[in-house]
Amino acid sequence: MGLEPGYAAGIISGSYTVTAVMGVAQSAVSSGAFVPPAGMSADQVSANIAAGYAISYVLSTVLIILLIKYLPSMFGIDPVKAGKDAEKEFSSGDDNEKLPSTFGFSDVGVLPIDVRAYKVTHEELVGQSVQDLYKRFPDAVVLKVVRGDDVLDASNNPILQLGDVIGVRGEYSALIKEGEADIGNEVDEPRARNVDIEVADIHVGKSEHAGKTVAQLHSEVGFGVYFKALFRQGHQQPLLPQTTVEVGDVVRIAGSQWCVEQTASQLNSVPIVESTVTETFYLATALLVGYVFGHLSVTVAGIPFALGTSAGCMLTGIVFSFLRTRNPAFGGPMSEGARSFLQDIGLNLFVAVLAATVGPKILASFQGIIVIKIALLGVTAALVPPLLAWLYGLYIRKMNPAILAGACAGGRNSTPAMKGAQDATQSDMPAIGYPVPYALTSVLVLILGYIAMVIS
């Protein structure tokens, strides 16, 4: 279409709504991988990049949301029914838990357990320690003992006396059926039920408990905790009594802090909990590796190729994230607020500095029908590929429309479009199809955006 160098990379960046493509295109200019033609300055090329991005980004951001949201209806598909069908197909009978070290993994949610207070009136319990009782009744754990004005914690392994009020944690059904029959009358004693619950991920290290079933593990090391989920190699496993726990698995448990720490210690590990504290060492290491890797250059046919800082950091970030879901201690959980801040401040500063540097020349890029050409290319690049992906997935691969809509949104790196699909289907299932296309596209579009800048 006769556009000057720089527009292509800007349109790619805007149509994919991936601002980082502008970064790799700019690095190609500044590193000398792209040499401006005679009579054209590097600043003018940067202005063209920004101009192509600005127009295509605005149009793509709005239109991709509308396309993804209404794709099922356009093809005569009931989006709500598609969402329900996907939920039924992917349901395993258990709630799907978030992967280790991902945002929200420590949410307690609704647990099928409770803490109730009972007065010890049965003589056979007198003289028994809390640990002794756990060995006999692993499904009903004594966490608090109230004796007059004293409140004894289970960590002290107190001996029960007649008339004690004990706080027992267990599943609802067990407490309702067997509580008063085996212990005594249920009483209203808040001090016995005052137990804080936290959720933690525990990486199973080289421990003598590895290789045992979930039931055996809970009876041996699960004092006071509830097993919520089990992950192996980043994939959630069925949490059944006979499921074997292997070295390297991640067990998600819920319980009081002392119980969680005790369980982790016996599994030769440390509990990982979500907090507002962000682990910076591994983040800094990933950035350093990505920076070095991105600046490695390979010359092909006389043209130097390098990923650049943006693509290098993206690739190492994916690798570190992959490793962290398999061992949550590797990098630790990141606060969503900190993650969002780092992402937004980095991109915003980049765009602001670029605009301040080449802003006066951007207006010069809008000449004649250039704006119309950019708009046409940007809209075409934003909408045609996901439409083709939709047709292929629907008619060739026979994919569920709700999940397919999420995949199409991921292929365009548009989280708002995925949210639109969730709104249309009244289901969270589009999120299942979103991550893999998003990750692949994020890497490929950076590499291809760099190449587009170099060959222009």
Distance between the termini: 13 Å
Class of secondary structure makeup: alpha+beta
| Strand order within the widest beta sheet | 7-6-8-5-9
Task: List the uncertain runs.
Answer: none
Mean pLDDT: 83
Please report which band the strand proportion falls in: under 5%, 5-15%, 15-25%, 25-35%, 35-45% or over 45%: 5-15%
| Helicity range | 40-55%
Write the H/E string, N to C: HHHHEHEEEHHEHEEEHEHEEHHHHHHH
Descriptive terms for the model:
about 450 residues; alpha+beta; 5-stranded antiparallel beta sheet; 4-stranded antiparallel beta sheet; elongated
Structural notes for this entry:
Helix 2 (20-31) crosses helix 11, helix 3 packs parallel to helix 15 (415-425) and helix 4 packs across helix 15 (415-425). The protein starts with 6 loop residues before the first helix and ends with a helix. The longest helix has 33 residues, at 42-74. It is elongated. The strands form three sheets. It has a five-stranded antiparallel sheet. The mean pLDDT is 83. The protein has 456 residues and is of the alpha+beta class. The protein has 17 helices and eleven strands.
Question: Topology of this protein?
Answer:
Blueprint: H1 7-15, H2 20-31, H3 42-74, H4 79-90, E1 113-119, H5 130-136, E2 140-147, E3 150-153, E4 165-171, H6 172-182, H7 190-193, E5 198-203, H8 214-221, E6 225-232, E7 235-237, E8 250-255, H9 257-266, E9 271-272, H10 281-294, E10 297-300, E11 303-306, H11 308-326, H12 336-365, H13 370-396, H14 401-411, H15 415-425, H16 430-433, H17 435-455
Antiparallel strand pairs: 1-4, 2-3, 2-4, 5-8, 5-9, 6-7, 6-8, 10-11
Helix pairs in contact: 1-2, 1-3, 1-13, 1-17, 2-3, 2-11, 2-17, 3-12, 3-13, 3-14, 3-15, 4-15, 10-11, 11-17, 13-14, 14-15, 14-17
